């Protein structure tokens, strides 16, 4: 079973959890902005250089075994409600009712804000490129299963559906605190398959605002949660194979 783990280049939670499942051959892909890890295939998943004739992104991916599964955790900074500002967040402005789901913030919006315009501008562009490329990778390589992880109430889901026009049938909501994590963190693992995940929403020890980990730590996924997801992926693929054999 070939698994591509996009953006698994920080602490590599997808890769760590996969060690308990020998049938999973996992390929972590991305860049580590903290420069602490080397377990992954170094590739900028926010790359847009094919606009200028440089096709490094897809040429690199084309050399890998075709994936049965694509897991992706694109950066959430530009979509997150944690960077809340008046009428939206630090990257996007939204006034309701509005004819547009997304309006780019003007520099003037940051005059009295705690966020930096230049950093927010770059975060927004990187966020758009990363999720755009994620969807293009899914469409190009057609895995049997794909799962995209991001905060449950972030704006990325609206962007995928209404801007990119890519429908994902199953929300698969869960809470990290249900799997022993220090923060509650409601999260969706949106997918083309239904996943049975805990939705208890147990109280957490600290709030997200109090959590003081670095970028990689804040991007961690509880290994116990992934170890609940992986058997469901494996079973789904096994059932699909058996169904195909019966038809033949």
UniProtKB/TrEMBL annotation:
Lineage: superkingdom: Bacteria
Keywords of this entry: Methyltransferase, S-adenosyl-L-methionine, Transferase
Lineage, uppermost ranks: Bacteria, Pseudomonadati, Pseudomonadota, Gammaproteobacteria, Pasteurellales
Coiled-coil boundaries: none
Protein name: DNA methyltransferase
Source organism (scientific name): Rodentibacter genomosp. 1
Cited PROSITE patterns: C5_MTASE_1 (PS00094)
GO biological process: methylation
Gene Ontology molecular function: any one: methyltransferase activity
């Amino acid at each position: 079973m070939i698994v591509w783990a996009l953006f698994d280049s920080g602490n590599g939670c997808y890769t760590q959890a996969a060690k308990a499942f020998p049938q999973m051959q996992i390929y972590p892909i991305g860049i580590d902005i903290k420069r602490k890890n080397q377990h992954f295939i170094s590739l900028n998943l926010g790359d847009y250089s094919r606009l200028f004739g440089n096709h490094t992104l897809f040429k690199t991916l084309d050399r890998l075994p075709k994936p049965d599964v694509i897991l992706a955790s694109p950066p959430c900074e530009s979509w997150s409600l944690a960077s809340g500002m008046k009428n939206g967040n630090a990257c996007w402005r939204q006034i309701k009712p509005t004819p547009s789901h997304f309006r780019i913030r003007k520099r003037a919006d940051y005059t009295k804000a705690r966020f930096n315009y230049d950093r927010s501008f770059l975060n927004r562009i990187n966020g758009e490129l990363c999720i755009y490329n994620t969807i293009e990778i899914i469409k190009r390589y057609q895995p049997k299963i794909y799962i995209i992880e991001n905060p449950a109430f972030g704006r990325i889901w609206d962007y995928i559906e209404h801007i990119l026009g890519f429908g994902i049938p199953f929300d698969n909501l869960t809470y990290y605190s249900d799997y022993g994590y220090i923060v509650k963190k409601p999260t969706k693992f949106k997918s083309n398959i239904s996943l049975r995940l805990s939705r208890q929403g147990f109280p957490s020890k600290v709030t997200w605002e109090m959590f003081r980990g670095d970028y990689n730590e804040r991007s961690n996924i509880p290994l116990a949660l992934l170890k609940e997801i992986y058997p469901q992926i494996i079973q789904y693929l096994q059932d699909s194979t058996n169904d195909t054999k019966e038809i033949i």
